[in-house]
User: Fold this.
Amino acid sequence: MVKNAHKPNLHHKYFWDTDIDKVDWQKMYVAVITRIIERGGQKEVDEIVRFYGREKVLKALKDEIFFLPNYAIEDALRFFPELKKEEMYCYLNRKDKPYHWI
Assistant:
């Protein structure tokens, strides 16, 4: 059996506001991917790609994540060079809308 087959090997600090033992990693994949893109580095991104698969992570970034701050969009582009921000819903959703709460 593969180690960590049922959950990604991510430090609990990324989920400080969550009971990590109760996370449904499959159901909550969009939230997990969002959190790691916003706060993780290459090692954590590699782990979500290993766990969810590259296509699922790219689909989430393109179609399912509704908001990422500008720095996280830039990080996503760096982590996934094949991605274009014009393909990302989170960019298209607010490219002309300022946000002030972050």
In short: The mean pLDDT is 89. The two ends are 42 Å apart (CA to CA). The CA atoms of residues 62 and 88 lie 4 Å apart. Residues 29-39 form the longest helix (11 residues).
